[in-house]
């Protein structure tokens, strides 16, 4: 009976502590349990009871009587220890609850400029920042970001990165550009006729030799060339074309001089077939580009009638493409609009 007040006071404190812990535990993370708290309280209770064990012999008349000074001090010390411990537990529980709740929450912030969502973690520790990869925003089939300087130009499908450099230069600077100089027109007509025996890259690689053999494609100089020396064995011309083609070049030079006498220039004659306005084909795919056209057949027939040789419709159409009489650059090629602009300058 003498120790009943102490037990009752300890139970009250324990009940208060348990009620407080139970309230905080609802908000805290589950890794702190009631057992751990009650165990710590029991240890404190035992220590407090040990402190007051020497005074158990003191009798109390009633529960309401005052305690002795020594036992009263020990009881107050035990109660203050319990209160401090309870406060520490409550503070620890609240901190754990806040940290666990903050660690489990993710906040998403939207950026108005990019429309992307970025996840930020509100954890006390520093989070690593990872640099975002550059994006290219696509709108209406074009890149919003400026293209890099190393981006290659879009050319016709038959010109690839593996093509001969001289062929790429010919495509980018000459092929499809309107030509109105008689010597250059004659050169392109001869080179187009050579396509029956060689390819454009091979012809262009020997272009300088062509110009040296045929006197820079001057018709007046070509008609003076000795045919036997031209086609003789070991001559530079024999490495370019067959004998039949070499003789055709000399004969065509004679016929060009006659056309110049009639029309004033070979330029006026050849461009009259298209009324001095180049044809724009607007082909999208390589398979759409023909080997010849009705217009090429008309020009071929007139040239043959005048005495020209090796000027079939296929050769004539290749000549029309090279001389810009027809613009057969694909619409996706960067040279398509350039050649149209060059044609409009001469209209």
TrEMBL record:
Q: What ranges does the record list as Low complexity composition bias? A: 125-139
The membrane spanning regions, by residue number, are none
Q: What start and end residues bound the annotated signal peptide?
A: none
Sites binding Zn(2+) sit at 156, 171, 329, 333
Record keyword Zinc present: yes
Q: Does the keyword Metal-binding apply?
A: yes
Q: Which domain of life is it from?
A: Eukaryota
Name the GO terms of the biological process aspect.
base-excision repair
Q: Where is this region: Disordered?
A: 1-73, 124-156
Alphabetical UniProt keywords: Metal-binding, Zinc
InterPro entries attached here? Adenine_glyco (IPR005019)
Q: From start to end residue, where is composition biased (Polar residues)?
A: 1-11, 59-70
Molecular function as annotated in GO: DNA-3-methyladenine glycosylase activity; metal ion binding
**Record protein name field:** Methyladenine glycosylase
Organism annotation:
Arabidopsis suecica (Swedish thale-cress)
């Amino acid at each position: 009976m003498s120790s009943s007040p102490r037990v009752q006071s300890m139970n009250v404190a324990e009940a208060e502590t348990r009620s407080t812990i139970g309230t905080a535990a609802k908000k805290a993370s589950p890794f702190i349990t009631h057992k751990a708290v009650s165990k710590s309280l029991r240890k404190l209770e035992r220590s407090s009871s040990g402190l007051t064990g020497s005074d158990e012999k003191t009798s109390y008349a009633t529960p309401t009587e005052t305690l002795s000074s020594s036992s009263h001090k020990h009881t107050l010390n035990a109660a203050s220890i319990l209160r401090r411990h309870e406060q520490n537990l409550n503070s620890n529980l609240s901190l754990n609850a806040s940290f666990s709740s903050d660690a489990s929450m993710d906040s998403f912030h939207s950026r108005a400029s990019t429309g992307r969502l970025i996840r930020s973690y509100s954890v006390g520790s520093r989070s690593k920042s990872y640099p975002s990869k550059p994006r290219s925003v696509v709108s209406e089939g074009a890149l919003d970001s400026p293209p890099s300087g190393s981006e290659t130009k879009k050319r016709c499908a038959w010109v690839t990165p593996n093509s001969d450099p001289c062929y790429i230069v010919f495509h980018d600077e000459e092929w499809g550009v309107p030509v109105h100089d008689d010597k250059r027109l004659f050169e392109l007509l001869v080179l187009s006729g050579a396509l029956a025996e060689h390819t454009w890259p091979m012809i262009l690689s020997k272009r300088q030799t062509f110009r040296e053999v045929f006197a820079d494609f001057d018709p007046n100089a070509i008609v003076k060339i000795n045919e036997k020396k031209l086609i003789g064995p070991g001559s530079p011309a024999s490495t370019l074309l067959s004998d039949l083609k070499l003789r055709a070049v000399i004969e065509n030079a004679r016929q060009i001089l006659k056309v110049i006498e009639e029309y004033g220039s070979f330029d006026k004659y050849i461009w009259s077939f298209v009324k001095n306005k180049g044809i724009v084909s607007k082909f999208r795919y390589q398979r759409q580009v023909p080997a010849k056209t009705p217009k090429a057949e008309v020009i071929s027939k007139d040239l043959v009638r005048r005495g020209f040789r090796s000027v079939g419709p296929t050769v004539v159409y290749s000549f029309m493409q090279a001389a810009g009489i027809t613009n057969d650059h694909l619409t996706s090629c960067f040279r398509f609009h350039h050649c149209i602009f060059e044609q409009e300058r001469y209209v």
